[in-house]
Specification:
The protein is of the alpha+beta class. It has helices spanning 17-36, 113-121, 148-164, 170-185, 192-198, 239-257, 272-278, 284-308, 312-328, 335-345, 373-388; strands at 42-53, 63-79, 84-89, 96-99, 132-138, 204-209, 214-219, 225-231, 350-356, 363-369, 393-397, 404-405. The strands form 2 sheets. Strands 1, 2, 3, 4, 5, 6, 7 and 12 form an 8-stranded mixed β-sheet that branches. Strands 9-10-8-11 form a 4-stranded antiparallel β-sheet. The two termini are 41 Å apart. The structure holds alpha-D-galactopyranose.
C-alpha cells in the first residue's frame, strides 16, 4: 500500500477552506513585508477554474460549464504616495518597477505582462491616482489548465478597481482581463476563463454561451458531490502552439463548411446533418476537429439538462464521452491524462472525468460522490503511480465565490 500523500496540491477539508485561505494570505502578507519593507494595506484572493463540460468550445462559439475553484492567486497590496508601480512574485523570478506615466507599451515576455496588461488599460483613469506595490503569489499550479492567467488578470482588475474605487462592474473586469491576454500578452484565448473567474458564484457552475456571452448560474449539489482534480504534472512546452494550431484548424473547418450553411456564424452553428453530408470534402483531420465540436455542443446541452434534473451521473457520463472525443477527434489528450480518466472510470464513486483546460498535459477534473471520494482519489493516484512510477497531485477542490478582499480576523 502507498501512503496517502498529495504531491501537487496543498490539501484541505471543506470546513477549513476559509481558515486555510486566511492563513495562507497572512503568510503572503509577511512575504510582502520582507519584500517591500512595510506592511500591506490589503490582501486579496482570485480563484482559478476547472471546466466540467464544453471542451474547446469557447473559441468555436459553443456553450461551456466551468466552475471557479478555491485555489488561485494571492495579492498583497499597498498604495504609494508617489506614482511608482512595483510588481513582485513569490513564485516567479524577476520583478517590474516602473511609474504610472511610463508603463511599457509592449510585453516583456515575463509573468508580469498579465497584470501589466490590465494596469495599462486603467492608465488614463489612474492619471490622478497614486502608485502601488503588489506582491503576487498563490496556490494554483501554473500551466496546468486551471487558468492561472485569468486568475491573475481578473484578480488584478479587481484589486485596482477596489484600491482606486473605480466602480467597475464584474463584466468590465472580465473585459479588462480578456484584453490583457489577447491584446497585450498575445494569446488567442477564448472568453471562458475570465468569465469563469469574474462571474463566479459559490456553489454554482457557470453556464456560458460563448456565441453571445449570455450566462446563467447552474446550482450544483456540493453536499453529495465534489469536484476533484488530478494533476499529471506534465507541462508540455509546445502546448501553446498546439493550442493555437487547434484554434486555426477549427477556423479552417468552419470556413469550408459554412458555404453549406450560410446562416452559420461560428462552427458551433453547423448542424450534425450538414457535417454528415459534407465531412468527406474536408481533410480527415479537419473533419475530426469539426466532429468533436459538433458532438461536444450536443453533449454539453445534454449534460446541462441532466444536471438540472438532478442527474449528476448523467452529467458525468457526458464528461467521459467528452474525454473520448478529445482523445480521438480533437487529439489533445496524452497517455498520462488517459490513464487518470480510465482509472477514474473504474471507481464507482466517480460520476465523470475528463481532461480540463487545453489538454496535452495538465489536469483531469472528476465529479465524485463525497462518500467514496477519498478512496477514489487514492485508487486513481495508485493506478497512475503503477503505470508512470510517480504520484500525480490529487485533491478535492471546493467552489469559490470569485475575486475578493480577504480581511484577517
Ligand atoms: C484553454 C483556453 C480556454 C479554452 C480551453 C479549452 O484553457 O484558455 O479558453 O479554449 O483551453 O476548452
Amino acid at each position: 500500500m502507498h501512503a496517502h500523500r498529495q504531491s501537487g496540491f496543498e490539501g484541505g477539508a471543506d470546513a477549513s477552506r476559509e481558515a486555510r485561505l486566511r492563513a495562507a494570505l497572512e503568510r503572503h502578507g509577511r512575504n510582502f513585508e520582507e519584500q517591500f519593507g512595510r506592511r500591506p494595506t490589503a490582501l486579496y484572493f482570485s480563484p482559478g477554474r476547472v471546466n466540467l463540460m464544453g471542451a474547446h468550445l469557447d473559441y468555436n462559439g459553443g456553450p461551456v460549464a466551468p466552475m471557479a475553484i478555491d485555489r488561485g492567486t494571492f495579492f498583497a497590496v499597498a498604495e504609494r504616495s508617489d506614482r511608482r508601480v512595483r510588481f513582485a512574485s513569490t513564485s516567479e523570478s524577476g520583478w517590474l518597477e516602473t511609474r504610472l506615466e511610463r508603463l511599457a507599451p509592449q510585453r516583456a515576455g515575463r509573468w508580469f505582462d498579465y497584470p501589466l496588461g490590465v494596469l495599462r488599460q486603467l492608465h488614463s483613469r489612474a492619471a490622478a491616482l497614486g502608485g502601488i506595490d503588489v506582491l503576487f503569489g498563490g496556490d494554483l499550479a501554473v500551466g496546468a489548465g486551471l487558468s492561472s492567467s485569468a486568475s491573475i488578470c481578473v484578480g488584478t482588475a479587481f484589486v485596482l478597481d477596489h484600491i482606486w474605487r473605480l466602480g467597475l462592474t464584474p463584466l468590465q473586469r472580465v473585459e479588462l482581463a480578456l484584453n490583457s491576454e489577447r491584446e497585450f500578452v498575445g494569446v488567442r484565448c477564448g472568453i471562458m476563463d475570465p468569465f469563469a473567474v469574474g462571474l463566479a458564484q459559490a456553489g454554482s457552475l457557470l453556464w456560458l454561451d460563448c456565441k453571445d456571452a449570455s450566462y446563467q448560474h447552474l446550482p450544483f449539489d456540493h453536499q453529495r458531490f465534489a469536484v476533484a482534480v488530478a494533476d499529471t504534472l506534465v507541462r508540455r512546452e509546445l502546448a501553446q502552439s498546439a493550442f493555437n494550431q487547434r484554434v486555426a484548424e477549427a477556423a479552417e473547418a468552419f470556413e469550408r463548411l459554412r458555404k453549406h450553411c450560410p446562416q452559420a456564424r461560428v462552427l458551433r452553428d453547423i448542424p450534425a446533418e450538414v457535417l454528415d453530408t459534407h465531412e468527406r470534402e474536408l481533410p480527415v483531420e479537419l473533419a475530426r476537429r469539426a466532429r468533436h465540436v459538433v458532438s461536444e455542443v450536443e453533449r454539453t446541452f445534454a449534460a446541462r439538462s441532466a444536471l438540472m434534473e438532478g442527474d449528476v451521473r448523467g452529467f458525468g457520463a457526458r464528461m467521459f464521452a467528452s474525454h473520448r472525443s478529445l482523445r480521438e477527434l480533437y487529439e489533445v489528450s496524452a497517455p498520462e491524462l488517459d490513464c487518470l480518466v480510465d482509472a477514474a472510470a473504474a471507481s464507482t464513486a466517480v460520476c465523470g472525468a475528463r481532461l480540463t483546460g487545453a489538454g496535452f498535459g495538465g489536469c483531469v477534473v472528476m465529479l465524485v460522490e463525497r462518500a467514496g471520494a477519498e478512496q477514489a482519489l487514492e485508487d486513481v493516484a495508485r493506478a497512475f503511480d503503477e503505470r508512470f512510477g510517480r504520484r500525480p497531485g490529487v485533491a478535492l477542490f471546493g467552489p469559490d465565490p470569485g475575486p475578493r478582499e480577504v480581511v484577517l480576523g
